[in-house]
């Protein structure tokens, strides 16, 4: 499978100009800004009265709108000029390269994972889990989307771009495969939201965003395949590159020697001893209990709730991890004191209690994103980590949290 893939990739890189636009069409003279949205202006000419049948062949000529059109409104002031500086669809810094190369490693594992799951289980096993031929084709199509994303990011990064690796997976059943897919795509998506707005190359960020919105759809579909409520949050959280790398690293077994070293920090691993488990299959038809694949299921019996005690165990730094054992876990944090819950727009802390060596507990927090009658903060597939301080960070400056991570993050299956 790998050979034809490489050939395809080489071919695609050869015609990279088509996948990564080298320069968009020039803006109209004297205007750097895109045209205003039509809804705010007068109706565009195409919606106006039809041209006389006997009129000139092309009444809307290059000279502009037909004479009967009033002038369009001037574009609102401000915004980033798309041509100044010239858009550059490639990394403009090490930060850009390392961020996008991490995302590329994520796309590669997803491509392998979706194929792997389809090949690993029999048609009968998929059918028993409630996934029919059309569902399996959707997973196949998702693998093809990953190929597209890998081609795009390879074109953005150029020759040094990471190649595909060999992977290991923790699942033995179709349900566990689906659960792993919804978790892996969760940190793939959140990992990009954490850095997208900090990239130096806005042009590359634009293209990456258009891939990651596809990944967001995949995550939701895997939740549906698992019989979960498809989107129990109002906002999708962002995490740092080091957090995403910590979550991804264990599944990479060996990578080509020429792959660029991933320069993000790898935190000590965190294990949730009583993580809610969404994998059991209940074909009961009872709302709140039934977990067969569906567009949506009410979760009247939620997987978790505020006040639930959660137990953790974590590793000490200095452990070799990831492909070819070539990375080592590190931390800059002091003593473990808090658990941080990263969900929606919120970064919430609870005290870590019952600390004994590398184990401890906490209580799942309540709280709603915008107060009473709004979405509960803790829901869906989200992130928890052990920290030494409860510093105030927002989704935009969450990278300050890196220095305070004792261990983690881990994915908490709160809903
Ligand atoms: C990792 O190990 C594989 C298999 O032994 C080898 O081919 C590859 O070059 C190694 N990669 C690195 C980064 O050392
Ligand atoms: C759903 O029903 C099954 C089978 O009756 C039962 O074992 C399980 O505990 C129920 N799950 C929940 C969350 O109530
Ligand atoms: C689903 O949950 C909503 C919100 O709790 C509730 O209003 C609705 O009646 C439930 N529907 C079913 C079929 O359980
Ligand atoms: C998560 O959201 C679902 C859907 O709105 C809701 O039924 C469930 O109670 C929520 N879970 C928690 C832990 O709040
Ligand atoms: C969650 O984050 C939003 C956006 O920053 C903020 O307005 C809200 O107060 C936070 N909610 C809580 C309970 O802290
Ligand atoms: C992150 O940003 C918020 C407000 O934007 C600020 O209050 C907070 O101090 C910042 N955190 C750090 C660690 O600088």
Structure, described:
By secondary structure, the protein is α+β, with helices and mostly antiparallel strands. It has eight helices and twelve strands. It has helices spanning 2-14, 16-19, 94-120, 123-128, 133-157, 174-193, 202-225, 241-248, and strands at residues 166-167, 252-254, 270-272, 309-314, 320-321, 327-328, 338-343, 346-351, 353-356, 359-363, 381-387, 405-413. A four-stranded antiparallel β-sheet has the order 3-4-10-9, with no helix packed on it. β9 and β10 form a beta hairpin. It is globular, with a radius of gyration of 24 Å. 36% of the residues are buried. One 2-acetamido-2-deoxy-beta-D-glucopyranose is lined by residues 229, 232, 299, 302, 304-305, 376, 378-379, 414-415.
What's the total number of strands?
Answer: 12
Shape: globular
Share of residues in strands: 5-15%
Number of helices, counting only DSSP H or I runs of 4 residues or more: 8
Hetero groups:
2-acetamido-2-deoxy-beta-D-glucopyranose
Number of domains: 1
Strand order of the largest sheet: 3-4-10-9
- Give unreliable regions as ranges: 1-19, 21-56
Biggest sheet features: 4 strands, antiparallel
End-to-end distance: 36 Å
Structural class: alpha+beta
The residue-averaged pLDDT reads 89
One letter per element, helices H and strands E, the order comes to HHHHHEHHHEEEEEEEEEEE
Radius of gyration of CA atoms, rounded to a whole number: 24 Å
Percent helix among the residues?
A: 25-40%
């Amino acid at each position: 499978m790998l050979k034809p893939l490489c050939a395809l990739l080489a071919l695609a890189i050869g015609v990279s100009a088509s996948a990564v636009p080298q320069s968009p069409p020039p803006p109209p003279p004297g205007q750097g800004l895109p045209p205003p949205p039509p809804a705010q202006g007068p109706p565009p000419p195409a919606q106006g009265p039809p041209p006389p049948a006997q009129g000139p062949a092309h009444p809307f000529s290059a000279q502009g709108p037909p004479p009967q059109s009033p002038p369009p409104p001037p574009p609102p002031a401000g915004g980033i000029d798309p041509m100044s500086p010239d858009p550059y669809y490639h990394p403009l810094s090490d930060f850009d390269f390392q961020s996008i190369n991490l995302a590329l490693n994520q796309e590669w594992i997803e491509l392998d994972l979706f194929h792997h799951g389809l090949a690993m289980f029999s048609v009968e096993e998929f059918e028993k889990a409630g996934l029919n031929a059309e569902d399996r084709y959707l997973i196949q199509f998702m693998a093809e989307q990953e190929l597209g994303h890998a081609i795009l990011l390879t074109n953005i990064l150029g020759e040094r771009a990471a190649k595909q690796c060999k992977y290991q997976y923790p699942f033995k059943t179709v349900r566990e495969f689906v659960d792993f897919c919804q978790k892996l795509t969760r940190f793939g998506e959140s990992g990009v939201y954490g850095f997208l707005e900090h990239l130096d190359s806005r042009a590359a960020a634009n293209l990456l965003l258009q891939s990651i919105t596809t990944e967001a759809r995949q995550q939701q579909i895997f939740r549906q395949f698992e019989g979960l409520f498809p989107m129990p949050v109002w906002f999708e959280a962002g995490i740092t590159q080091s957090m995403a790398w910590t979550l991804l690293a264990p599944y990479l077994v060996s990578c080509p020697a020429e792959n660029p070293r991933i320069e993000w920090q790898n935190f000590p691993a965190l294990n949730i001893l009583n993580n809610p488990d969404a994998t059991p299959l209940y074909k009961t038809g009872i709302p709140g209990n039934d977990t067969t694949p569906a567009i949506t299921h009410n979760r009247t019996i939620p997987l978790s709730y505020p006040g639930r005690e959660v137990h953790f165990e974590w590793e000490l730094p200095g452990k070799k991890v990831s492909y070819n054992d070539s990375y080592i876990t590190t931390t800059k944090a002091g003593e473990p004191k808090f658990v941080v819950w990263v969900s929606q727009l919120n970064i919430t802390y609870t005290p870590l209690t019952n600390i004994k060596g590398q184990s401890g507990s906490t209580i799942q927090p309540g709280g709603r994103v915008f107060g009473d009658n709004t979405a509960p903060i803790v829901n869906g597939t989200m992130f928890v980590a052990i920290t030494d301080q409860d510093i105030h960070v927002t989704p935009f400056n969450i990278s300050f949290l890196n220095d305070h991570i004792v261990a983690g993050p881990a994915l908490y299956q709160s809903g």
